[in-house]
Write a structure and sequence with these properties.
21 helices
C-alpha cells in the first residue's frame, strides 16, 4: 500500500490509529501490538499477498535463530548459528534481487546457459532483511534483551518504516512500544506528526513526481537532449530523488509521531554538505550507520593503518552500490563514491582549507554527475548522457520535454495566458527547478521543523492546505523510488 493513496489516507491510517489506541485505552496492550502487526501485514501485502509468505518466513526464521543464540552460552554453536543467520539473510537477498543479474553475467562471460527466473522483487526486502540481519548479529554479541515474538514482529513490520526505511535498531523501537506513557494519543505528537506527514506527502506528490516527469523523459529520450536540456534533466533527477526519498522518510516520521513513536532521522539536508564525507553523514543516515557498524568496523575500520582504512571505505561503498540494485550502474556508482571518499580522506587537510562555498559546489556537482550513473539503465546510457552534456552543445529545450512537464496547473496557465506568453511552460519549468533547488539548499528540513515545532494558526492552515492539495493531486499515483531497492 502507498502512503500517497486514497485507501491509506481515508481508511488504513484512521483504522490503524483508532484500533491501536482504542485497544490500549482498555489496557489490552498485547492485543494492541498484535492488531498493529496485522495492519502492517495488510499494508505490506496489499498489492501482492504472496509477499507476506516471504516476510513471515523471514521473521520466523530470524527470530528462531536469534533465540537460539540468546539462550546458548556455547561459543562454537553460537558462531555457527550466526553464520547460518547471515547466510540465510544474504541468501534471500541474492535469490530475489541478484539471481538473474549474477547468472546473466556468468552466461555472457562463459557462454553458459543458466536459466533466468525473472523474479518479482518483493517490496522493501532489502530494508527488512538488513533490519533483521542487524538483530541477528546483535543477538550473537548478546546486545539484545529477551523480546517476545510479538515485540520482535512489530519491530520488523511497523508499517511506516517497513518498505523504505529508515533501517531502525531494536533498541530504537521495542522500548518505545513498551512505554505505557505512549499508549494514549498525545496532542503535541499528533500535531507534529500531521505537520511532518503533510510536508512529506507534498514533497512526494507535488514536487518529486513533477520533477520526475522531466527526469523520466530525459533518460528515456537521450537522443533528443543537448547540453542545456541534459543539465536540466540531471538536476531534476537529483532533486526528484531527494524529495522522493526524504518525502517518504518525513511521512514515515510523521506517522510514527501519530503513534508516539520517534523514528531515527534519515536525512539531514544532504545537499548542504561541504564534502562527500559530510554528504554521507547526511544522506540515508540509517543505511550509512548499518554499513559502518556491520561492514566497516568488522573489516577493521581505521584501526589497521591508512591503506586498510582506504580499502575498507572503498569496500563499503561497493557493497552499498550492490545493495541498491542488480545492475552494473549501481556497482560503478558505488565505486565512484568510494574513490571520491578515499580521495577526500587522503587530502582532507588540504581540502578543508578551500573556501566552503567552493567545496560545497564541488560536492554538489559530483553528486549530480554520480546520480546520472545511478539513474541510467546501462553504462552505455551513462556514456551517452555525459556525451550530451559535454559534447552536444548549448541549445533550446525540446518541445517534447516541455510537453512532458504539462502539469494540470501548467495546462491551466497556458489556457489562460498562453496566447500572451507562449513560453509560459518553459518559465514555469525553470522556476520549479530553481525553487526546488533553493528549498533543499537553504530551507530547514522537516526534522529541524519538528524540533522547533510550536502549534500556530498559520502552521495549521499550511499543514491542512498541503494535505488537502496533495489528496486532490493523488490521481497520478506513483510509487516511491526507494521501493525499488
Amino acid at each position: 500500500m502507498l502512503f500517497n493513496s486514497y485507501i491509506f489516507v481515508f481508511l488504513f491510517l484512521p483504522m490503524s490509529l483508532v484500533g491501536y489506541f482504542g485497544l490500549n485505552s482498555i489496557k489490552k496492550y498485547s492485543l494492541a501490538k498484535i492488531f498493529l502487526i496485522g495492519m502492517s501485514f495488510w499494508f505490506y501485502g496489499y498489492f501482492n499477498p504472496s509477499y507476506l509468505v516471504i516476510m513471515c518466513a523471514s521473521i520466523g526464521i530470524n527470530y528462531f535463530i536469534s533465540d537460539i543464540m540468546h539462550k546458548s552460552n556455547n561459543g562454537a554453536l553460537r558462531k555457527i548459528i550466526l553464520w547460518i543467520g547471515i547466510l540465510f539473510n544474504i541468501g534471500i537477498l541474492f535469490y530475489f534481487k541478484y539471481h538473474d543479474f549474477f547468472f546473466l553475467n556468468i552466461n555472457q562471460a562463459f557462454g553458459t546457459d543458466f536459466t533466468l527466473r525473472h523474479l518479482v522483487l518483493p517490496l522493501g526486502i532489502s530494508f527488512f532483511t538488513f533490519q533483521q540481519l542487524s538483530y541477528v548479529i546483535d543477538s550473537y554479541k548478546k546486545d539484545v534483551p529477551k523480546y517476545n515474538f510479538f515485540d520482535y514482529s512489530l519491530f520488523v513490520t511497523f508499517f511506516p518504516q517497513l518498505v523504505a526505511g529508515p533501517i531502525v535498531l531494536h533498541s530504537e523501537i521495542v522500548p518505545q512500544f513498551a512505554d505505557k506513557t505512549k499508549k494514549k494519543i498525545n496532542a503535541d505528537n499528533f500535531a507534529k506528526g500531521l505537520m511532518a506527514f503533510g510536508f512529506g506527502m507534498a514533497k512526494k506528490v507535488l514536487i518529486a513526481d513533477s520533477l520526475g516527469r522531466i527526469a523520466n523523459w530525459g533518460f528515456d529520450n537521450l537522443a533528443m537532449l543537448n547540453t542545456t536540456s541534459a543539465c536540466i534533466v540531471m538536476l531534476s533527477y537529483t532533486l526528484q530523488l531527494y524529495f522522493d526519498f526524504s518525502g517518504y522518510c518525513d511521512t514515515a516520521t510523521g506517522i510514527g509521531y501519530m503513534f508516539n513513536i520517534k523514528l531515527p532521522m534519515n536525512f539531514n539536508s544532504p545537499y548542504k554538505a561541504v564534502n562527500i564525507l559530510d554528504f554521507w553523514d547526511r544522506w540515508h543516515m540509517t543505511l550509512t550507520r548499518f554499513f559502518k557498524t556491520y561492514v566497516y568496523f568488522p573489516l577493521g575500520g581505521s584501526r589497521k593503518g591508512k591503506f586498510r582504512t582506504y580499502l575498507n571505505v572503498f569496500i563499503v561503498f561497493v557493497v552499498s552500490g550492490i545493495w541498491h540494485g542488480a545492475n552494473w550502474t549501481f556497482i560503478v556508482w558505488g565505486m565512484v563514491h568510494g574513490l571520491f571518499s578515499v580521495f577526500t580522506r587522503m587530502f582532507k587537510k588540504y581540502i578543508d582549507k578551500i573556501p566552503k562555498i567552493i567545496n560545497w559546489f564541488i560536492t554538489f556537482a559530483f553528486v549530480n554527475f554520480a546520480w546520472v550513473i545511478f539513474r541510467a539503465k546501462s553504462l552505455a546510457d551513462v556514456e551517452g548522457f555525459y556525451y550530451k552534456i559535454f559534447k552536444e552543445g548549448v541549445g533550446p529545450i525540446p518541445k517534447e520535454m516541455l510537453d512532458a512537464f504539462s502539469l494540470p496547473e501548467v495546462v491551466l496557465l497556458n489556457r489562460l495566458y498562453g496566447d500572451k506568453y507562449p513560453d509560459i511552460t518553459l518559465w514555469v519549468l525553470i522556476a520549479f527547478v530553481v525553487l526546488s533547488f533553493f528549498a533543499v539548499v537553504f530551507l530547514k528540513n522537516t526534522n529541524q521543523k519538528i524540533d522547533k515545532f510550536k502549534p500556530t494558526v498559520l502552521g495549521s492552515i499550511l499543514t491542512a492546505f498541503l494535505i488537502a492539495y496533495t489528496i486532490v493531486s493523488l490521481s497520478g499515483i506513483s510509487t516511491f523510488l526507494y521501493f525499488n531497492f
